[in-house]
UniProtKB/TrEMBL annotation:
Originating species: Methanocaldococcus bathoardescens
GO CC annotations, alphabetized: cytoplasm
CDD domains registered for this protein in UniProt: HisRS-like_core
Family from the record: Belongs to the class-II aminoacyl-tRNA synthetase family.
Main location: cytoplasm
Assigned keywords, A-Z: Aminoacyl-tRNA synthetase, ATP-binding, Cytoplasm, Ligase, Nucleotide-binding, Protein biosynthesis
Protein name: Histidine--tRNA ligase
Length: 413
């Protein structure tokens, strides 16, 4: 017997109903903010995916050659494909561009709780605006989406420019900076300490660890400014973060200078959102002003985020989605009776009702047992005598009450 590939999942109808419900609630918020949906191909050239991260990412991807010998990769995230799409078809449109997506992504990694080889991302990109208002809008949108689905969460906001300003003054190379950021993102502080001592020495290492420990409300920024008064680029980043936070409408967040983000293209404000149960990190994003230029475009500011949709679902309480479904039961296997039942079903569906027709030829009692086991709220019983008088029997499966009702009234049963 064939098994599903490792790290993938099959979703039952009940699970899909919940996933679609949450997806649509998130879509509502993206569209209220004026974002328009796009979709990119499931696979891209490997060169595009590896452009910013380098060859070492190969082992984390599904890479293959097409029949023309071109090397392709299943997309591991959505920002790089969106930037490619922007450069191909959208760059001449008036700015800013507000785009959102919902798509499956793929990474070849060890499956564990909240981490799959096929997973779904839902997110947005705001392209063409360098104002702190853009950063704040993306933060507000990310939080509003989670509020709209009733999720309890914590937001941590940082700024890569703070650490970058220190590392630049310490003459740290770009390659060394990338390694430092990756160690911070993995929270591998032991290896980070060893590496910093190796390239910077004990005293400078201590300053960097002091920065990473800064967590709290806006009040910590004045203290941070005092510590970093000799680092003008770091002060500039702190001022930028302060201005962004002025426009964030939700006050429940933590400033956390220990956020580095795993992807190398982020340049400024970064943030992560954590759920209170299940897989912890459910959202991440930030500013990436250099990525479009790296991919061959004109320098263009951009900021965005992605929800880990599967991780959101792990943080959602069991949903009781109210859905009134109706089962139509012809009382016997008679072609004319079935045809009339089909006409009734068609009329109800056109009125927006969810309707199934009993097609297994069950006797009435068995059909009612089936309706009960499937959770149908109402059943319409179609009998010859009642039908000849323009009526059917409507049974409420919750109360057990049943009554005759005219077919003309059925659009409001």
């Amino acid at each position: 017997m064939f098994q599903k590939p490792r790290g993938t999942r099959d979703f039952l109808p009940e699970e899909m109903k919940k996933r679609r419900f949450i997806e649509n609630k998130l879509r509502e918020v993206f569209e209220r903010y004026g974002y328009r949906e796009i979709l990119t191909p499931t696979f891209e050239s490997f060169e595009l995916i590896a452009k910013k991260t380098g060859e070492e990412i190969r082992k984390q991807l599904y890479v293959f050659k097409d029949h023309g010998g071109r090397e392709m990769a299943l997309r591991p995230e959505m920002t790089s494909p969106v930037v490619r799409f922007y450069l191909n078809e959208l760059k001449n449109l008036q700015k800013p561009l507000r785009l959102y997506y919902f798509a499956n992504c793929f990474r070849y990694e060890r499956p564990q709780a909240g981490r799959f080889r096929e997973f779904w991302q839902m997110g947005c990109e705001l392209i063409g605006c360098e104002s702190p208002l853009a950063d704040a809008e993306v933060l507000n949108l990310a939080m509003d989406g989670l509020i709209n689905i009733g999720l309890d969460f914590d937001v941590h906001i940082g700024h890569l420019g703070v650490l970058k300003g220190v590392l630049e003054k310490f003459n740290v190379s770009e390659e060394e900076e990338v390694k430092i950021r990756r160690l911070i993102d993995k929270e591998d502080y032991e290896s980070l300490e060893t590496y910093l001592i190796q390239i910077l020495g004990e005293e400078k290492k201590e300053l960097i660890f002091d920065i990473l420990k800064f967590k709290g409300g806006k009040e910590i920024l004045d203290e941070l400014k005092e510590i970093l008064k000799e680092f003008p680029k770091s002060i500039e980043a702190i001022n930028n973060l302060e201005e962004i936070l002025e426009f964030v409408i939700h006050d429940k967040y933590t400033i956390n200078l220990g956020i580095a983000r795993g992807l190398d293209y982020y340049t400024g404000m970064v943030f992560e959102i954590y759920g209170k149960k299940g897989a912890k990190q459910i959202c991440g994003g930030g500013r990436y002003d250099n990525l479009i230029e790296t991919f061959g475009g004109e320098p263009t500011p951009a900021v965005g985020f992605a929800y880990g949709f599967d991780r959101i679902m792990m943080n959602i309480e069991d949903l009781d989605i109210e859905e009134e479904s109706i089962l139509i039961i012809p009382v016997k296997k008679d072609k004319e009776l079935i045809k009339k039942s089909l006409i009734i079903a068609d009329k109800l569906r056109k009125a927006g009702k969810i309707v199934e027709l009993e097609i297994m030829g069950r006797k009435l009692r068995k059909a009612l047992d089936y309706a009960n086991s499937r959770g149908f709220k109402k059943v319409i019983i179609v009998g010859e005598k009642e039908l000849s008088e323009g009526n059917v029997t409507l049974k409420d499966m919750i109360t057990g009450e049943q009554k005759l009702i005219s077919i003309d009234e059925l659009t409001n049963p």
